[in-house]
Design goal:
Elements (H helix, E strand, L loop, with lengths): L1 H13 L6 H7 L16 E8 L6 E6 L13 H11 L8 E9 L3 H13 L3 E9 L6 H12 L4 E3 L2 H11 L13 H36 L2
Parallel strand pairs: 3-4, 4-5
Antiparallel strand pairs: 1-2, 1-3
Helix pairs in contact: 4-5, 5-7
Length: 221
């Protein structure tokens, strides 16, 4: 009886509506230009939660919530994800690992919220795999990526293994293997180099600040 109850609990927590294959290929595609049909690529966040060294106990897929409804306000997928995880009953004495696959890297505000969430829940370890970088040329969005990196919330650019994992876990794949699009790995490598350049600027800034602090110390001694 206890075993049956446990199985039912796990099935209830891990059951989700899988992404249609066409949606996955379009929304998670990392091509520089949107392939036909030219629909806007939105934010999708797929997550799974598991106790350390244990089975997956919760998973799901979320999108940005557009303004409307009773509240009249929109909510980013990352904020909806935080609300969802907070609503789950977890043993605070146990370490949980959460893996997220996102179509776009978080904006600065969402990065701040993710950092605050992990800070308030030290038993949670969060990893983000991103298909693309969101407004990576704008300073504020770069600061968000550096904040996540500094807070030990790794943002990793999805490459073939991550796309395959996401396909297997979250897509209505009809038992068919993931078929990579042309130049997938090349696009991933280019995006990853861009991310590393952004993160390296954080290290340069830390070195400059340390040098200035040393100069101030020398002046005052």
């Amino acid at each position: 009886m206890l075993f049956a109850s446990l199985v039912f609990f796990l099935l209830r927590r891990t059951t989700m509506n899988p992404l249609p294959r066409k949606v996955f290929y379009h929304q998670f595609g990392n091509q520089k230009r949107v392939p036909r049909p030219y629909r806007r690529r939105k934010t999708y966040l797929c997550y799974q939660l598991r106790p350390q060294d244990g089975p997956v106990t919760a998973r799901g897929c979320l999108q940005n919530k557009v303004p409307g409804g009773l509240s009249g306000h929109g909510r980013h997928a990352e904020i909806r994800f935080i609300d969802k995880i907070r609503s789950l009953q977890r043993d605070s004495s146990q370490t949980f690992e959460i893996t997220c696959y996102v179509t776009w890297s978080p904006c600065f505000t969402c990065a701040e919220e993710l950092v605050a969430f992990v800070r308030d829940h030290p038993h949670v370890r969060l990893r983000l795999f991103a298909s693309r970088l969101y407004f990576h040329w704008l300073r504020k969005y770069q600061e968000g990526l550096r904040l996540l990196h500094k807070s030990r919330i790794p943002v990793v650019i999805m490459n073939l293994p991550e796309f395959q994992n996401c396909w297997g876990e979250f897509v209505d794949n009809q038992d068919k293997p993931f078929q990579p699009w042309n130049k997938l790995e090349t696009y991933s490598e280019n995006i990853n180099r861009r991310l590393q350049r952004i993160l390296e600027r954080s290290n340069e800034g830390n070195k400059t600040k340390k040098f200035h602090d040393q100069c101030e110390h020398w002046k005052n001694t």
